[in-house]
Structure formats: structure tokens, C-alpha cells
Amino acid sequence: MQKVIEKVLVLGSGALKIGEAGEFDYSGSQALKALKEEGIKTVLINPNIATVQTSEGIADRIYFLPVTPFFVEQVIKKEKPDGILLSFGGQTALNCGLDLFNKGVLDRYEVKVLGTPVKAIQETEDRQLFSEMLDEIGIKTARSLSATSPEETIRAAESIGYPIIIRAAYTLGGQGSGFCHNREELTQKIHQAFSYSPQVLVEESLRGWKEIEYEVVRDQYDNCITVCNMENFDPLGIHTGESIVVAPSQTLTNREYHKLRQISIDIVKRVGIIGECNVQYALDPQSEDYRVIEVNARLSRSSALASKATGYPLAFVAAKLALGYGLHELKNDITKTTSAFFEPALDYLVVKIPRWDLSKFQGVNREIGSSMKSVGEVMAIGRSFEECIQKGLRMIGIGMHGFVANHELPENDLEDELNNPKDTRIFWIAKAFDQGWTVDQIYNATKIDPWFLAKLKNIHLLKQELINFQRIEDLNNAFLLDLKKAGFSDFQLARLLYNEDDHEAIETRIREIRTYRQAQQILPYAKQIDTLAAEHPAQTNYLYFTYHGSSHDIDFEKDRRSVIVLGSGAYRIGSSVEFDWSAVNAIKTVEQSGYRSVMVNFNPETVSTDYDSCDRLYFDELSLERVLDIIALENPKGVIVSTGGQIPNTLAMRLQAYNVKILGTSADSIDMAENRHKFSALLDSLGIDQPAWKELSSIDDIEKFTMQVGFPVLVRPSYVLSGAAMNIVSNHKELRHFLELATQVSKQYPVVVSKYLTDTKEIEFDAVADKGEIIVYAISEHIEFAGVHSGDATIMFPPQKVYVETIRRIKRISRQIALALNISGPFNIQFLARDNDIKVIECNLRASRSLPFVSKILKTNFIELATRIMLGEKVEKPFKSLFELEYIGVKAPQFSFSRLSKADPILGVDMASTGEVGCIGDDYYEAILKSMLAVGFKIPKKGVLISSGTMRDKIELLKSAQWLADHKFEIYATKGSHSFLSENGIASKQVNWPDVDEYPNALDLIREKKIDLVINIPKNLSSEELSNDYTIRRAAVDFNIPLISNARLASAFIYSIGRYNIDDLKIKAWDEY
Amino acid sequence: MKDRAYPPAKLVLPDGTQIHGKSFGYPSSTSGELVFNTAMTGYPESLTDPSYKGQILVLTYPSIGNYGVPADIKADKLLRYFESEHIHISGLIIADYSEDYNHWNAVKSLGEWLREEKIPALFGIDTRSLTKLIREKGTTPAKIVHGSIDDISFEDPNDRNLVDEVSTKEVVEYGNGNIKIALVDCGVKNNIIRSLLQFDTKIIRVPWDYDFRKLDFDGLFISNGPGNPEKCETTIEHLRSALENEKPIFGICLGHQLLSLAAGAKTYKLKFGHRSHNQPVLLDGTQKAYLTSQNHGYAVSEASIPQKWESWFTNLNDHTNEGIRHQTKPFFSTQFHPEASSGPTDTSFLFNTFIQTIEQCKK
Predict the structure, then answer these.
(1) Which helix (H) or strand (E) holds A292?
(2) Is B237 labeled as catalytic in the residue annotation?
(3) Do the strands B140-145 and B30-37 form a parallel or antiparallel pair, or are they unpaired?
(4) Strand partners for B282
(5) β-strands A164-168, A200-204: how paired?
(6) pLDDT tens, position by position, B76-91
(7) Which of A744, A827, B223, B280 has the fewest CB within 10 Å, making it most exposed?
(8) Are residues B128 and A527, on separate chains, in Cβ contact within 8 Å?
(9) Residues A784 and A893: beta-carbon distance below 8 Å
């Protein structure tokens, strides 16, 4: 008899990382919603504390624990769920689930895998099995052989013929994969691929073919639909996560579209998917020949994109199908009357563009290819490709204004930039047009379909025509409308017409152009995404703007009962899911307070862009121009700018200039906190200390100031020639070097130099205030000393090792600042503390990165309180205080260095982590161990390599080294560390630095996997030291061995494993603390 | 080519509404019935589908012309990439036009093709607003006007015998197989013939009013076609007597409506029809759903299905009838298009069903 499903376990995807990001918060949240609707009890395991899915009211029970077989088994043992969902938490959840299945754990506890059967998943994950299966039904896959040894790999490559692509099996987002043109290149890449997986695949290269994807859904009755297809702008060879992607396909005929659609359905039926599946193809640009490249039998990045692109809630439907529903039994959620068994008809296009943050990484390889490096993405909606691509290029937030009217590119070789794609390739296409290249020439260099290139050329031609004019009034309306239809922003028009460089002058021109356009009635129209191209009436609130229109799809109430919440835009390093959590909570509170909530955001990986989460969603730009368009139509009560991170925050002053009502803290106060000079003056007037700093415009002045305050100093240039944007310099030589080679210093481009403090604690103060009075606050403490960016730091809350006096002073200073800035809403202050000497580093009058973490640990929703205050409600101070907590939360960063080949995995003043987790423990050590296990650390069993930097670091590590030695760990140490350990009576084996050609060398031991933890603390910035350290760190990352590069964190980790065995860690849900 | 370089023209509706666009087809005026199709691919197929005779077609997918127009290559006496020899729509209305096309099998742009075939076409129109208007008011007469709006008057093409305009004038044979199929051409799409030719068949394509009773055949096929089914009285007459016999009959679209009328059911005009690639149908009495391509303005009234006949498929969106079959005899038909082209190929198995039925009856 079939077991009744009453309780279901859902696995999340853990911390955000490259290749596995916010899309799984969205799909998991949808699945939980679908289960809830059926009255099923839900249990969620996800250590990613900043997600929406781990918020109150979404799952019945939440475990902030690592998504690993060990912890999931413990939760199963305790919760005894009837079923488990594996396909909503990315590859992390899927791999974990497969492991539990293979070990018989699911059987033992009688947990039924809901949705696609495990056997089917296994068939799709093993490429050999998969291509054999497709071969049986006459479907072509790329010629592929699998190998389990380097020798076998080479034989396979040679039997297929170069060029080939190699991939590690069972990995996410193409880890350990790459193109090889010859045996030499292959030999270089083999070992790395095997470090990810015991199986490596060798495939024929189809470079230059079109890359097409289908999102397929199937139910238990064998009913099957393809919800969406998508075409990559970049041809095969560039990972779909790294490609600009268009939906629906643009260059496929009906025959091609439906041929691939039918094959998708045949595959999905053969595999036996129940739920959602993604099928990727290569399509020959010169015939109808194709190859199936990959099948993902789970929700994916592409399925999240497809959901947002079509309005079809794939994850929600997939969850329902997993429970046994048929597609025809479900309704289309948008129309509410038509069937969910249908394929959306789009009457618009969407363009997805990846967002890279490669400039944050020293030494990183900027080429994009078959493995993923991007950290986020945007989706632009419009009714022409030109409109979409220009919107999208603005949305990615890298300072570009569209396809044209951007700052000059550096003097690189144009041909090389086109041939070898890097993160900025599309802008080199613009440059090629400027230099007279034809569509054909660019096609030959890039293999981007000429249809896309012709569209880009249209934009170029419009620009060429526009630069003949000097005044907006000189353009006739037909031309102006053509420009707007092609996605030109008012900023682009201003820059191209008036050639202004000065910020304020451009701002004035933008205002003139806006006024002129409005007078000429050249305005954008709001259109619905309704899944059926207007065939049936739909009461949908999911909207975008286009200039290809003549009427709005909806009527605007204009009753001042709506509140606009501005979202966070593309996920990037430093701004990700935590701001989505804030925005979603702000929307909810707006609704609870009786207003209509209006969301503006364009990030398809988010929950805030789920049309179900607000009363009205504008999936569009967070630019001044578009936000003003929305405000003009909505006529809202006001706008909330403080819950979406930095993008909305910086809009505050500009919106105020247009008399827009900013809710909460005033724009002037925001400006006072954001502007370095104003904020510094404020602190001085309040008598609050800050690290010494100065804005300087000549090398002499910089040297003079540095002499005054002493090294090290932090140098932030406003114009960067090469290298990282910020740097710490410790001596004159480095200072000179940095100022001469990396930056330009002049009156126009001043440099900010600040005293850099070491051996100092960094403390975060998160709070909500009402008219300057603090209502609720949280103080948390970094484990690492200052110098590690707050986003990369491991943070504990409540603080464990801070003097009571320090806390008192921090509270006092915060009260002063809140009052002085008359804060109403969320804010965050970062402090430096050394011996009760407190300095303020910075203050942000908006929700911070750590807000979801402290809100959930304290079980007090800071955003809810802040939003109610911003809406003008009177809020009572909550009773709870951080001093009464009987448990501890630790927030740990997740790095994605393994994705960023050649990048130095070192922590510094620029943030490098891509995500985070937050785990709870009864004490500090339990919390830190859980959180570090959740970001991929493993408890070492064999050997630990120590190369420990400065004397201070060596001393810091002494006790932990002693513990390791006492517990029979093999300690390997580089020369200096080895002698230091010997002097202190701790046995270690000396290993050579990488540049010494003698065994045992640190690299050999890493390669031979004799080491399962690398502690490498950089000593100073001398180039030799850096290069040796770099090689060790990079090898650790490339061979997938946990790496710690901070002495305080290393000790904390080793103390933790000293106190806790993995079996001692408590399996407690959030509500049990 | 820049958008502004195209001459202006307008779409005019009977209530006086004028919608301005840019002309990229043949620069003449035309009138017809305004209908919309929400398919995202397949304009060469749609434009040559005879069922669109007399209609001005609005495509809701905004970017059209992307992959150009393929060459006139023939296989088995049929144009390989088109559904008939010529464009049948009266006019075309789209949002954004790509004169710069790219595809390996394209030989000309959509605009060139339309001009060759003397079909007017407009782009730069808010096709979503227009579609909503048709959805709310129903299909309406309309005209595309170059020059003065009085140059041409409104007309309802359904007053004409459109089937007669598109049907073959003579008998044409295809294939040389053992199964002989008489195909009544009311405006047949090439892909129906291609689909039938995949089997061991010989197709005898006859005009809509041809008395096929005098032919020697194993199965009878009634094709799709334009306009009001009640105009095809002659075909219905012939069908009535075919229903007396036992030879298998399969009808598609208009063919479905004609078979239903011959059986005694009634047809009616839908408010704005079904024209899309995403119409879901359920096989009655099962859990099996299929996605279908459709193009019809009239439908069979479910309630009027006579005794001994039953509903076969039902539309999952608006629950209209999508097919009927006889309870005992080998007669069946579908409102949707199993031959697809353009559209999804979920129901192509129905051609199998038809051929197997014929083979069984021959035994």
C-alpha cells in the first residue's frame, strides 16, 4: 500500500557559491509553498541563514545544518519524514540525496524520494549510461568517452580526436572542465579534473554551434510540456551560466524549435522524470544537426530563469507533480482559469546577462569558457532585442550605460578580445563597430549569430546618427522614439548629445531630456507577463516597461496607498541573498500594514521577483529614469530605499531631487553617512574617534600623510589603471609602486589614504531606530582581526570575547550617531576596538549583510520593525536582548576560489566570498564547527600543513599545533614554521617551499593527498613570499583541500575539533533553541 | 535598415480606430478579418496556411523575420518549407521587424517575400494592445490602408466561399503506395500530405466539391480550410453518404467541422478563435493531455454531438470540443492539427491511428 505523505524533508543548497546561487532559494521557497498548500508538514535543512526559505512561516521546521549525508541522516533519524525532495537544492542537495540513497539510508528510515526516481537521476548523471540510453532511442549526444585514469583519458581523447572537452563527472556548473586542443593542454588539465571526481569525461568539441536549452515538465501520467526554450547569444564553448541568454530562441525556425522540443520530450519520457528537467543542445548553425549536451534532472539556474521569463512557476508545479498531481489537474497560476498543462506564449523577449566580479581577484584568469565564474545575473524584458540588451547591460551594474555611450575601453588588442571571450566581450563588439568592422567580420571572430550582431549594429547606427545632433530639441519625435525603442536611456542620450563629462552637468541634461520627452509624450508603457500573450484575460501583477507600446495593460489607482520597495539588483560579491531577504520582509510588512506593496527588481534568482510575493512587481531597471517612471504611474505613499542594499541607497539623493517621498531616514542623512567628508566631520563634531584618513591629490602629500600616521595605510584610488581597486601598503617602496603603476593621482582623481589598524577587533552594530532613538540592536564580533573584509569575516553573535566596557561604549556611540542622523529605519555601524579604544569605520543607513543573521539568531525581525517605523507606525521596543541568548550563532563565509582559476585565495580589504552560512550551537565551538563544515571544511584526519606567516601568527597557532600533535596528526611545516614548532617542542616534518626543487615539497604532499588541511598565513607582501604562498594556497584550492589563511580562524577551527567530535554536534532545529 | 526609412501606413477598424505603423510588405491597401496568433515560431508556415484565407494576421510574438524565408525547394510535388504554394493571409501585422535575417536555409527577407507575393504588412504596432482589443470585441473586419482610408471598404470574408478559393482545381496524386486515400482538399496544408505519405500510401487530392464517391479508395481524409463550415454544403452532402459506408474517415480542423455537420452536430463561431501552438487538449475519459497547434474560428457544439457519436478530445482551457468519433464505425476527427507545422508534434500519432484503422478495415 502506498504510504501517505504527511511530512516531507526538503534539502536546500547551502551557501551561495559560483554555480549555485539564489535561484535555489527561489525554487526551494516555491516547493515549500506547494507542500504547505497540501497541508504537508515540512522540514528544511539549509545552513544559509540569509535566505527567504529559512524564514519563519515558510517551512514548519528549519535546521541550520550542513547539507551533507551525515547531518541529513541525523535529521531523518530525528524527524522521521515520509518523503524527501532532492531536486530543489541544486547539485549539493542532489548529490547528498544520491549518497543517502546509495548507502541505503533512505530505505532504512523508509523515506520515499518524491518526484523523479533516483534510478532515473543516476542515469542522467552518468554520462556514459546516459548517452547509451539516448542512443537506444535514436537521439544523438556529443561523442563522449569516460575514463577513470589519466592514461585512459588520453587514449579516449585520441580516439575522438582533438579538439575535445574534458569534464569531471558529478560536479556542479562545469567544475574541473575545459577545452583541450592537443595532448599537451590535456595533460595539464587532467589532474585537476580527477581531483573533483573519480570519473572524467572526454567529449567531441562542438565549438561555434548554437547552444539551446529546453525546460521540460512531466507528470506521473506521462503528460509532458516544454515550458520555455532559450538560446545562448554566445555559441557553445561558453558555459550557459556565463552566456548572455535569450528567451525564447530567436534564430531557430519552427522546424528546429519543434525538432528539439520533441527530442526533449522523448528524453524526459524515456528517463522517467516526474517534475522538472533541463535539456541542453548544441545545434549546428549550418544544418538541422544537433547533439544533446546535458540533462539536469532537477531544478536549475535555467529553470529559475525560465520561471521568471515566462511567469510559469516551475518549482511550484514540480513540487505538486512530485506529490502525484497531473499537469492537467493544476491551474495556470496567472490566469487562474486555464490549465497548467500548456506552454507559455511570450509576447516579449527576455535577455539574461551574467554578472562577473573578476576584478575583485588578484591574478584571476579573465577568460570565460566552459566552467562558470559569474556570481550573479540580471534579466531584462522588452519587446525588441535592442531594448532588452541595452537594459540588461545597464542592470549588471558595472558602470556601463548600455551597448554604447560608455567610457573608453583600455588599449587592448581588439582582435584578441573578440577571439578569446572575457567578461567584457560585448563592449568590444561595440568598439569593433566603431572601428568599421562588419557583421561578418565580427561573426568570424566570435561565432555569435549574425542576427544578434545585426541587432547590435542597429544600436551602433542609431548612436552614429545621434552624435550629429547637439540638442534634444533638434531630434524629431520619430527618431527619439526609435532611440527609446532601441533601449537608449536618458543618460545615454545626454552623454551622446551634450558630451558632458561632469556629473552634475549630466544630471541637469538628464532632467531636461526627461522633461522634453514627457512634453512630446514619448513614454514607456507597462505591460503584463501573462503566459498567454493576451489570449486570455489575466489579473497578473507581473509587469515590465517597453517603448514598443501604445497603452498600459493595467489601470493605476493613484491613491497613495501603495509603497514602493526597491530591490537589490544583480547578486554580486558584497550584495546577495541577504538583501533579497530584507526586501521580501519589507514587502510583507507593507502588506500587513494595509498598503499595497510594489517591488522593483530585475534579478531572476530572487524571491522578491516572484510575482506572488507582492501586490505588484515591476521587473525592470533600478535606475533613476525607470524608478521615476514607476513613481509617476503609481503615485505611491513613498519609496523604501533602505532594504535593497547599496543600489537603492545611492538613488535616495537623486530621487529626492525629483521630490520623491523617501520613507524612513531622510536622503540628506543617507548622504551624510555616505559622503566621507560629511560623515567624518559629523564624527568629529560628536567627539567620536575614527581611523586617520585624508583625500589627497599628489604623491608628495600622500607620502607626507603616511609619515604622519605611519604604515600600514590603506589606499583607495578613485581611478584604477590596473590591479585591485584598494590596497594596503606597508612601506615606501610598495606605496611608490602602487601609486605609479596601479593608479592615477591628480586633482581630478584624488586618492583616499587611511591609517590601517592591525591586531584590532572588528565589531558590527546592526540596529533599527525610530526618529533617532534605537529600538532594537545587535552587536556581533569578528573572529578575524581587522583587515579581513567584514563580508569575508567569520562572525559570532552574541559577541563572546568583547569587554563589557567596549559594548557600553559602542552602544553610546551608536546612540549618538542615530540621534545625530535622525535615523528611522535599519542601519549598521562598523567599529574597531582595541583595549576599549573604539573607532568608527563606517556607517550605512540601510539594512546590512548581517541583518538576516542577527534577526534569526535573536528571533527578532529587524526589517519588520524597521518597515513599520518607516511607514510611520509606533513600534514598541522588543523585550528580547542579546545578553539573554543561551546559544550562539556563527556566520561563516563561503568562497568560490575553485571556480576562479589562478585567483589568489587570500583574504584582504576587498571582499572575495560569494556566500555565507549561519549555524547555531550551544557554545561558540559547536557553532563554529557546524558553520565551517557547512561551507565545505572537513575535519582533518591525516595531515595538516602549516606555513604560518608572522611571529604573531606563529604564536597564535602554537596551542592548536600542540593539540594536533597530541592527537596523532602528522604536521607538515615549511622551514620557518618548522623551526618555530621545534623550538617549542612540537614535532613536525619539514617540507620545502614550492620554489625549492627537492622532495618533500609542499606541492607534492598536496597532490598526493597526504594533507587534508592547509593553514597558510601570508607573512608580508614581498613578491617571493607571495609567490610561494600563492602557489601553496592555489594548489590547496585546485586539489580541493580545505584552506585557512587566517591564524585566528585556524585556531578557532582546531579548538573546535578538539572539543567536538562530529557525533557530538547537536541536531537541533531553529525553534528548539 | 532604419525604422524611419519605411513608409507609414495604417490599420483601420470599423469603429474608426486608426493604428499607425510602418509598411514593410506590398504597398497596397487590403481588407480582411483581423485575427491573432500567439505562436512564437513558424511565420513561413502560417502565412502559407490556406486556413488564413481572407484574414489579416496579427502575430503576438514581437520579433518577426529573424530567420528570413527559405527557398522554394520541392519534394514529392510539395514545397518543402511551406504549407502551400502561396501566402494566403490578406495582410500581416507585427511589432518589430528584422530585415536583417540570418539562417542557413534562408534566401530572402520576410519583407521581400511579402512584396513578391503582393501582401501588405505593417510593423511598429502595439500588437499586445491590438490582441486585447480582438479578445474583448471578438474578431473584426479591418483594413490596412496605404493612402486614403476610403480607397477600400471593410468586408467580412466569411461571406465568401473561401474554401473554393483555396482548394485545388484538379485532382492530383501523390505517392504510389498500397493504401489509397482520398483527400478532400478544402485548403489542405502540405504537412498533412507529407504526414500521410510517410506510410505506404497513395494520396488522391481532390477539389472540395469533387464527388469522391466515384473514386476507389481505402480511407477518406477531409482537410483543414478557411471560413465558415456551413459554406461547404456540397462536401457535407458527400460526407453524409460516406457515413453510410464503413470506410475509415479522418478529418482535421474544417474537416472535423464538416464531418460533425454531416453527422448532425452543429457548429458556431468562437469569439476570437484558437490560433496558437499551445492549446491543451485532454483525451476524453483518460489522464492523457496533449499540446496542440490550432487555427480555427468556428467550433463544434459539444451539446449537439448526435447519438452514436462521442466527444473524443476536449480543450483544457475553455472546454470546447476538440474532436469527435463514432462509437462503432471508423470515423473520427480533430479540431486541432496533428500535422503541426507550425507547432508541437504531440499528436502526430493520430496519422498512425488513421492508417492502422484503414489496414484493419482492409483485412
Answers:
(1) strand A290-296
(2) no
(3) antiparallel
(4) B289, B314
(5) antiparallel
(6) 899 999 999 999 999 9
(7) A744
(8) yes
(9) no
